[in-house]
Amino acid sequence: MSTYRVLITGEDIQKKVSEIAGKISTDYRDRHPILIGVLKGSFVFMADLVRKLSIPVEIDFVQLASYEAGRETSGCVRLVRKLETPVKGRHVLVIEDIVDSGLTLSFLLDYLGRQQPASLKVCAMFDKPSRRNIDVPVDYVGFTVPDEFFVGYGLDFNQQFRCLPDLCILEEQN
Ligand code: 5GP
Ligand code: MG
Question: Is residue 161 part of a domain?
Fold first, then answer.
């Protein structure tokens, strides 16, 4: 059995999504950006965000794996699903659920950067800067969070809890 406690409510998350959507809509006006979601965790944030934007966007997804199972990172990143949309000359905004060590994002920025986009920025709903191993730029951040293991709002523990509307701290598993 696993227990969890709420750190940020779904209501506060939704307010933050509206705020970020407002900024992105202003910054990317007339740029027709491609939003690239990092599966699986970002699917909830992506779905909320795109419905609050007031500009046209395209979306695509990549899937990267670094956490093999459970809570610990394996230290290596694999591309599990490639991008379908050509991004050369396009304005690209990466949509992440949470940035932790920065390893996944650093790998992805390198992969995307080699395809020569017109611009490349990052939007993450949650950021754990105290855990950073690799310096990565995060241009839009929802919430800075402490060094805990979170579930909910797209984040899982062994594929569970992604559907919780709140950001929760996983407290114990037996
Ligand atoms: P990083 O490569 O920055 O260490 O980790 C990035 C990925 O690890 C995130 O996109 C997310 O999928 C996963 N991750 C990082 N921190 C957490 C967390 O607290 N909870 C869960 N469920 N996944 C996390
Ligand atoms: Mg992720």
Answer: no
pLDDT digits (tens, 9 = 90+) for 77-118: 889 999 999 999 999 999 999 999 999 999 999 999 999 999
Given phi > 0 = left and psi -120 to 50 = alpha, else beta, which region is 86?
beta
pLDDT for 35-78, tens place per residue? 999 999 999 999 999 999 999 999 999 999 875 555 555 668 88
**Domain limits at 46?**
11-145
Q: What is the DSSP string of 83-152?
A: --S--TTSEEEEEEEEESSSHHHHHHHHHHHTT--SEEEEEEEEE-GGG-SS----SEEEEE--SS-EEB
Name all residues whose Cβ lies below 6 A of ligand 1.
Answer: 38, 41, 66-67, 73, 96-105, 149-151, 155-157
Q: Tell me how many domains the chain contains.
A: 1
CATH code (residue 58): 3.40.50.2020
In a domain, residue 3? The reply is no
Q: Considering the entire predicted model, what is its pTM?
A: 0.94
- For residue 162, being part of any structural domain is answered with no
In a domain, 6, yes or no: no
In the residue annotation, 100 being an active-site residue is answered as yes
